[in-house]
Amino acid sequence: MNRVEALGVAIKEARAKKQLSQEKLAELAKLHRNSVGLVERNLTKLAVDSLFAIADALGTTAAELVARAETLAGDDRSL
């Protein structure tokens, strides 16, 4: 899996850990209700401001989400 796909997985993992629905996370992050699902399924690219909003809503940092994505991606450094 590439890093962009892995970021969606990292967000999904963090959301599940907090027991939030995609819709609730989107609401907390002040994003469109479909945005989180699209990101988690790698159907859209995540804007930096949205990454920060999602991280804030999850009570984590963008750096932690990106670090988890890097771990999940392993050696796949592609976009």
TrEMBL record:
**Example GO molecular function term?**
DNA binding
Per its UniProt entry, which superkingdom is the organism in?
A: Bacteria
The record's listing under CDD domains reads: HTH_XRE
Instruction: Write down the SMART domains for this protein, in alphabetical order.
Output: HTH_XRE
Alphabetized InterPro entries for the sequence: Cro/C1-type_HTH, Lambda_DNA-bd_dom_sf, TransReg_Diox_bact_type
The record's keywords, sorted A to Z, are:
DNA-binding
**Domain HTH cro/C1-type, residue spans:** 11-65
**Pfam families linked:** HTH_3
The answer to keyword DNA-binding applying to this record is yes
Q: What is the protein name stated in its UniProt record?
A: Helix-turn-helix transcriptional regulator
* Organism of provenance: Noviherbaspirillum pedocola
